[in-house]
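Render this sequence as a predicted structure.
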Amino acid sequence: MSISVNMNKMQKTKNLDCLVEVELETQDKQGVHSDLSAMTNLKAKSNFHTEILLEKIVNKRNIFEAYKRVKANKGSHGIDGMKVDELLPFLQSNYDTLKAQLLNEVYKPKPVKRVEIPKPNGGIRLLGIPTVIDRLIQQAIHQVISPIFEEEFSDSSFGFRPNKSAHMALKQSQKYINEGLKYVVDMDLEKFFDNVNHDLLMYLVSLKIKDIRVLKLIRKYLNSGIMLKGSVVKSDVGAPQGGPLSPLLSNILLDELDKELERRGHKFCRYADDSNIYVKSHRAGERVLESIIKFLKDKLKLKVNKEKSSVNSPTRRKFLGYSFYYSKDGIRFRVHNKSYERLKDKIRKITNRNISMNFNYRLKKLKQIIVGWVNYFKLADMKNKLKELDKWIRRRLRACIWKTWKKIKTRFRNLIRLKVPEDKAWEYANTRKGYWRISNSPILNKTITNQKLINHGFISLSSQYEKFRLS
């Protein structure tokens, strides 16, 4: 639904008592709706009563289901220092008190802990880490209200949604390009999560959520503030990344963009705040970009980073870490160069020979990186590139091993054990060549072979890639 309604009529959460009531349908046996459907318009009556949602949120079954999600997601502690492992004992002792505080509307969320994460391009991503208890409550809210919005969300929205994924967004993009939409309008929202307008967001939430208590609780989380250097900084705008509610709230706001694009008949893919619109010509793309920038500014109070936004061929842009290339079979996926560089940066840290680390632990951490990365980028054609990277990784691992053989007698003894002739073993044990140069020497390639590294637990990028492609 468009938000062309006069924004001067928007009310704060505390003044939403006059919102239209909707019908009540029987709860499911577990006390949590398993199949909520969204309203089709403001006047339509829903199958579910959204005026008594807080009881469903604090229901013990829902709270403990939320605990399982928070436990599985792990994560850092908030400003109170409570860790995820301490949450279950807390719930077992304090569930009734927490429930009463929420139902009596006296619960007050704690400020989030500010964490700065370096971006690959040199910027900083600001995260707000809620306390473990607040993450639990946010997750409980999410489980109840998310289905209410889900069925109304666009099919072209893929981020942070059940049964949706980045791979689905990429395949949809591939389909549009192969249909002849050769240009992409690549939009970058400027500090999206830091610039969300609270009144506008709460207005959109209130269109479907009629429980005033839940609306007040959500606004409390939006206004909970940020702890900086021991002082609480109030937050009048923004939805800090780091809590379970933020992705849902961002989708609620950006669904207005989706509906506008659908109304105009555009083909697009959106993953969170990353939007790509596909058009037939560069000129059409420029017109679309200009009009959508105006829509975002006027209707959603959001800014587009014009320096990072562009109309171009999909082969020259990055979308979710991927890019595209043309082949005789049509458009195909490739890994963007920046994604390769980010992978190499991670591998450099794990295989840094100057950092003392147990070799088995080093291989374990390396395996985690490789399996996760290849699983995400398995849609891309990259077999030859991965073989090059494997050679580079093995060389770094050999350098790590050589570094641990610091003393001449240790090098000599280990080379003899690896069946190197005594004269050669003595020659290399006494070498003054650097670790990186020696790591590519014939003597190490023939002794610390690829198979020996595999036997020790090393998993190559190319072997993992073949495994995923065959599955």
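Summary. Residues 1-48 have pLDDT under 50 and may be disordered. Residues 28 and 126 are 39 Å apart (CA to CA).
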